[in-house]
Hints:
The chain is of the alpha/beta class.
Amino acid sequence: MNEYVLAAERTLLGSVLLDNRHYDEAAERLRPEDFAIDSHRRIFRRMGEMLGAGRGVDTTTLPEELARRTEIDCIGGYAYVASLTEGVPRRPHVADYVRTVEQAAKRRRAHEAFTGMLAQAEDPGEDVDEIFTRGISRMLELQSSKDEPATAAVIIPLLDRMEQEHTRKSDLLGLPTGLQSLDSVTRGMQSSELTVLGARSGVGKSAFMIQAAIANCRAGNRVLIFSLEMTQEQILRRILASVAGVPFCSVRDTKWATDHDMAKIHYAAGVVADWPLDIDPSGAIHIDQLTAKARHAIRRNAVKLVCVDYAQIVPADGRDERLRVAAVSRGVTRLAKDEGIPVLLLSQLSRPDKTNVNRRPRLSDLRETSQLENDANVAVLLHRPVDDEEQPGSDAELIVAKQRSGATGVFPLEFNQKSLTFEERKNGASRQAVAS
């Protein structure tokens, strides 16, 4: 144990005992777990609880509270609390002590992460790729836990961006979705924001995602797709159909394609091969591995958009599906915010009541958890009324059900069954609501 770090912790705790105002300066950067030894963690935690309850903390009240909680012996007794104030400078440099404790905590966590990776690497039963993925995830999490810049340090770059926005030629602030009606109301998928796209089974969630990916690749934005429902080849066949302008049925089974169709498919393949597009081949990939891979790709390959298809089938920790989906939502939300890119997360919607199968979906229909609704900066729902055999037709609606920074509304679309793409409905009236 580093004696210099322990001395900094003691002086920091002693400074709080002598002047409770120092606690806020420390608590802004430190948590109880950041202290090196258990006794200091307990003391700092109880200090916070007492001050939060409006009680003063000193060499008398703190030991009394620790004794009431049967922790006084765990921290070394009354004498240890009293000794913390010994040698504290008249004007302690609390920020320096906080920095020392914080840096030491980060070093311990880095050491623990590397030690864990080493132990796993020596276990022949562990998968090497998973070891790397978990290790990268842990390192990136540690690296991303940095100080938030002060307002003064943010306002100048913000003004610079606002000037650039003011003089831009494009109507978009963010990345395109491939649908003009949606882009017009959202100004595109924004940096650091989560867009949730919800639809019932068979309506076209994956088709929408692929359409957005195509629009961004054409604009030169690198896209990373995690699809747990479709393979790389299945996604690429859909993309080739759209780019080649060939009916998907002729791409799904080229036996029925004409020679002219095949020539167009070959040309499209050459175009798509040069696109900034990455399709992760993993099947059932845990949310922690998914976000780790995404972080790595964002930093290494300058990925601009991450797409995940879809929330309910991404493995995550939790004793039931509601908690697992909530963990997925939190994971991709943190990814978007930490890395400053938009994330498109697809989600199933609950089945409608059989007495009203064509009811327009609502935000509350997002399956399993309200966490998706809470985390989404923008929530878009797709609706295609079904026929008597419960098969979706070509008429479609795009419902912007939530937008934190703008309006909501309903926009008419057509679903092209041949190309599996959504198109703006000609002469279709939209219904837009002004944001409150």
